[in-house]
Records
---
Amino acid sequence: MTALTLSTAGAATLRADALVVGVAKGAKGPVVAPGAEPVDAAFDGKLAAVLDALGASGADGEVTKLAAPAGLKVPVVIAVGLGDAPEDDASYDEEILRKAAGSAARALHGAKKAGFALPVEDASAVTAIVEGALLGAYAFTAYQGGEKKDGKNGKQPLAEIALLGAKPRDKEHKAAAERAKIVAAEVNIARDLVNTPPNDLNPEAFAAVAQATAKELGIKVQVLDDKALLKGGYGGIMGVGRGSEAPPRLVKLAYTHPKAEKHLAFVGKGITYDSGGISLKPAGHNETMKCDMAGAAAVFSAVVAAARLGLEVNVTGWLALAENMPSGSATRPGDVLRMYSGKTVEVLNTDAEGRLVLADALTKASEENPDAIVDVATLTGAMVFALGNRTFGVMANDDAFRTSLHEIAEEVGEASWPMPLPADMRKGMDSSTADIANMGERMGGGLVAGLFLKEFVGEGITWAHLDIAGPAFHEGAPYGYTPKGGTGSAVRTLVRLAERTASGDLG
Ligand code: BES
Ligand code: MN
Ligand code: ZN
């Protein structure tokens, strides 16, 4: 993990492999952003002109590497685009800073030390730059470099970042940096879990990771194994997991604070591999299905972050872990499962498995009567069709709560969009054999899945559902602070929800 310190060093005197500065789009070409003055001085005040000559415009996402002039103690200057220069005295948008810091950190993979001299107007800029830098520096190298696992085939994260321009003795700046470090570290842990191949991260292995971390942090942890799940009547989780040699688990993580007034429950879909089961996915649709536990990874990381931040709120995480495999013991299309709630479900398609494991976990989470439940799941391909690869869908049984989650996501730089749960679509799941089927109308499949889940939420409990099937796993070229592979989607939203609940500024 990359080390980051708030440094009082000047940009001109810092010894490092590179200095990062910001460049924005001005009316008449690129303009150098605040924080870069000493660097500009070393260029005789011509940094903007040099960038212009190199074809740099200051566009969002642009990275330009320059040889450093004499006068700086670094060999390289990296100019990152900040988009349109803010008008008058306005400060830079947090997400712009987060992305720019991320792009710079990515450009520095393999390097030892860099100074970041980006515009630091206030504590929220510190948060954005620290998060962006640490998220952008991320690399998953555990399986590279042969036996030594030294990652030599891949580039290691930038080892050390000195953030210039922040005030290390300012309480707010310090707190912002410490918080951002914890949040970024937990997002990166969620990414690691998603990226770990499914032959190594099965339900048992995931539960063991949760157990070890919880012990370390004093989070209460309880693991129901397949025996306990069978005995307890968890027909949804068992029905999905029974086809696999690696049996399912339900993990409960309970973080409590003595002064907490509110209780949140987070529920995560944790399909460690989704082959589709007997309704097997065709080739081309299963290569990335190790990502199907991204919801559980987000929930795990969010509970851990809440504990490490010491938030004054109780947060319970539920990880519904199973591997969806075809075999002689697998659930068949046509089978009826008796769920933990007592309801019966006719399984028409074993590839609609996420809703089955989540249903049991939602019923279980409801027993504690939390103030709100949020589930996170890579639930439907339909949501990817609807919103694309970078935006998650937010559904809820409460309009105000759905709006809050959408706004919170926006605040932390996660793209989301509110989606409806149209009551008329429930009848598509009517079953002639059971209380409900696990499939409904083909159109609007993401909403159908949401409506299914809604039936398993306890009476009167505020609930929201985040379908992160699009943004959880990034297959394209890296951009900003987003790497290829696991993204850690929804961690920052859940953490911010916990923070707002703790401080009482949420409904
Ligand atoms: N895990 C998939 C959804 C998914 C798709 C996640 C693409 C990430 C990327 C889920 O279990 C699934 O297979 N859903 C089916 C449901 C259908 C059978 C009703 C789908 O979306 O096709
Ligand atoms: Mn599936
Ligand atoms: Zn799935």
---
Amino acid sequence: MFKPLLMFLLLSFFPLYSQYKVIIDTDPGIDDAVAILLAFQSPEIEVIGLTSTFGNHDIDVTTKNCQILLELAEKKIPIAKGFKGPLVIPKRPNPDFVHGRDGLGNLFLEPNQKEGNYEDADSFIIRSILENPKEITFIGLGPLTNLASALLKEPKIASLVKEVIVFAGAIYYPGNCNPLAEANVWSDPHAADIVFSSGLPLTTICLNASKKPQLTKQILNEIERANPKIGVFLNQINQFYIDFYLSQNPSLEGANIHDSLTIAYLLNKDLFSWVEGPICVVKEGIAEGATLMDTSSSNEFSPWNERPKVRACIDCKEKEVVALMVERLSSTS
Ligand code: BDR
Ligand code: CA
């Protein structure tokens, strides 16, 4: 009687502190870096580890970039090293033209700690979820290879993870790698298909939702002025990223923030709208990487029938999302 009352009172007075224990699986990546710092700047979130994956660069570089981010944010949490390529298909070329030849806007930074004794990412994911049943939120910002491998090795984690939020897919919306495929799914369609069919409590944020919110040079200057400790870095790495977006579409004001939307969704689901349905991933051919959702429960022989429903975010309140990001990234407390 006394204990629940005490818990209730504590939660009422300190509602913001470490509500979520989070693993971030990531391929930094400029928008990954923004998302990770956004999580670190959010008191509701306790990041218990970063798991690196190939994607925006080779695994050695994305793992090094994780270390750079931990040192910048002065966080002493583990990095677990992930897969160097997809489960079945050959690895795609690195998108240097989006994220730079170092994955972080061509600044060629070096961490103080050069090499670590890294646990494998899939083992770290399995161990963390089994040791903290129903407590871990998994955030996926890259190809879904590490999570798919963890599910293959220990299917029990599907029912023991609290929530999974990934940036992956495009629901009947133009892709950014081919006319239908989003980059994280296209980079490892087999892994994405395993994750989408696993029955995890899964939300995927899709390109449909990330098209609108933009990070502009003006906003980055504002963040830099308010919080130079991370703002200078954010401003520098994003120059390259924004220039890429503007070169693609001069009517834009800045760059799409993709990965940060997973953190914004975790913090405030009211900022998003979604559709729900089973998703099959196209694993080969001209539409490789397309995420096809059945929204109609078509017929009894449909391959979608066997699959669990996935929540796919297709829109967001972009002004509120950007305001949330600016508020958190500018905070020095
Ligand atoms: C996704 O692909 C990567 O380039 C970004 O980091 C993001 O995770 C956008 O499609
Ligand atoms: Ca990413």
